[in-house]
Amino acid sequence: MKYISIVFLLLVSFKIDAQELFVVTEPASNVPAGSIGVRVGQSLMKNQLESGSMYNLTPEVTWGINKNIMVRTSAFLSNQENGLGLKGGGFYAKYRFFSVDDLQSHFRMAAFGRYSYNNSFINQEAIDLMGGNSGYEAGLVATQLIHKVAISSSVSYARALNNSDYSFPDFLGNSAVNYTFSVGKLMYPKNYTSFKQTNINAMLEFTGQTITENGKSYLDVVPSIQFIINSQARIDLAYKKELYSSMQRATSDGVFLKLEYTFFNVTK
Question: Tell me, which fold does domain 35-263 have in CATH?
């Protein structure tokens, strides 16, 4: 109840257009049609299985095929075993199927899917398709934009498969429901005078998972700040904190740094 109250107070305080660009969750809106986005994500997380930290590096390329369809390819690198090395990759696609636009607000809904390949040793109960498990995911996301505030939520089904030479353990649940809730507000500028103005966004994101076979779950909170420079370059700084977990996880708390640049009108 304490965390729900925090979210409620944040929503009430956001009185008054916001960016729909979250750090660890994906909104229903797509990248601009014909654009190519290049992003490098980094994280330094507390290692729950042994001393020290785990470093992850995720380069990604996103293509806006048209206003309703976008695709993304990712590579997963980690220092989990024998120094930094390539652990796998993934493909993500999103289709925006519903949109309602108003003068100072809009509402979007989209369906998304993900397939990931990984060659790492499976060492946790949590299913992680962004660097820990091979598998697939399918879900729905809805995003509401009102003036300077964006609110987004998603739910999805994920299924873990064998990791290259490592079979998925029989004693672990291999399917899960993932859920997210995110809220963000445009903090600066107060008034637009040019697209070249630097935008500063503050966000609070919640990510959770429940294993369907045994009911084990976790919930994380991720506060973050985001800078958008010249409407093309993006810098994300975030901190993830585990609020609750009844399952074994390889990592928990840690920091994120994402750098992204978008090239507009690359394809027609």
Answer: Porin (2.40.160)
